[in-house]
Write a structure and sequence with these properties.
Order of helices and strands: EEHEHHHEEHEEHHEHEHHHH
Number of domains: 2
Number of helices: 12
Low-confidence stretches: none
Oligomer: single chain
CATH topology of the largest domain: 2-enoyl-CoA Hydratase, Chain A, domain 1
Bound molecules: 4-(N,N-dimethylamino)cinnamoyl-COA
CATH superfamily of the largest domain: 2-enoyl-CoA Hydratase, Chain A, domain 1
Length: about 260
């Protein structure tokens, strides 16, 4: 994992951490960085010792968006053929709980990256926004879809048509982030939450995540049917037996992800 140039990958116990690492350009998301991020997340997903992960840009900035230097002179066909979407898809395909730890700017693709995570811990310095309108484009990694589903149409319009930045505190009021903490402890708090997530029954966490994400894409009846099947499925797991027996025996469960 140490041969990555644009991301750092570490593990603390059952928690993986990926840190975007191009500080000189505010972690601008170049294709090379996104390729490494995607590869790192796939590895953490495949690692049975990892139960949850944190995605961060570190203490100063999350990411100021896709790399404008890289995009400036590209044509439409070239953009399409580069299949960036496939690489970004690794973030939403990550099956374990993924916590974003956001300090400073989370703009454009950086903001979309945070919105792809399952929980967001924001430092009090965090600024969320989709300033693409100022570049003559629109968000391309989910911004126009995930913002309105999260905060409603009108705030989404403001953010995407005016390029307004949303502060950490306002993001909290809007339900866009789970916690606002002092910037110097953002990553630590996210790691603690991820450790708690990693201690839960892994299969149940995976299916709960899948079911909640599905609720944003389907009708209520289809979503309920999916939830019910996942619920029944878990009764085929050893962890369901362990969880319920442990409760009855008044002890802590030992989940195995089986
Ligand atoms: N790209 C490249 N370089 C960037 C950058 C970016 N997005 N953001 C900042 N930098 C560079 C600056 O050019 C500067 O470099 P030097 O001049 O020092 O060489 C350095 O980082 C420090 O930035 P500033 O000097 O500008 O710092 P300030 O504190 O004054 O301002 C700022 C910070 C974040 C307000 C400002 O840098 C800024 O406005 N940055 C651009 C933000 C932005 O417009 N982001 C949206 C980009 S478009 C898709 C996937 C993703 C996307 C689209 C499609 N598919 C899968 C299809 C995403 C698109 C986008 O994100």
């Amino acid at each position: 994992m140490s041969d990555y140039q644009h991301v750092l990958v570490e593990r603390e116990g059952a928690v993986g951490r990926v840190t975007l690492n191009r500080p000189q350009v505010l972690n601008a998301l170049s294709p090379a960085l996104v390729a490494e991020l995607s590869d790192a997340l796939r590895s953490l997903d495949a690692d049975p010792a990892v139960g949850a992960a944190v995605l961060t840009g570190g203490d100063r900035v999350f990411a100021a968006g896709a790399d404008i230097q890289d995009m400036a002179e590209r044509g439409a066909v070239e953009q399409l053929l580069r299949d960036q979407t496939g690489r970004w898809a690794a973030v939403t395909a990550f099956a374990k709980p993924l916590v974003a730890a956001v300090n400073g700017y989370a703009l454009g693709g950086g903001c979309e990256l945070a919105l792809m995570c399952d929980l967001i811990v924001a430092g009090d310095s965090a600024r969320f926004g989709q300033p693409e309108i100022n570049l003559g484009i629109i968000p391309g990694a989910g911004g126009t879809q995930r913002w309105p589903r999260t905060v409603g149409k009108y705030v989404a319009m403001e953010v995407m048509l005016l390029g307004t930045h949303i502060s950490a505190q306002r993001a909290y009021q809007l339900g866009l982030v789970n916690r606002v903490v002092p910037a110097e402890v953002t990553v630590r708090v996210a790691m603690e939450i991820a450790a708690q997530l990693a201690a839960k029954a892994p299969l149940a966490a995976r299916l709960a995540k899948e079911s909640i994400n599905r609720s944003l894409e389907t009708s209520l009846s289809e979503g309920l049917a999916h939830e019910r099947k996942s619920f029944y499925f878990l009764f085929a797991s050893e962890d369901q037996k362990e969880g319920m027996r442990a409760f009855l025996e008044k002890r802590r469960p030992e989940f195995k992800g089986r």
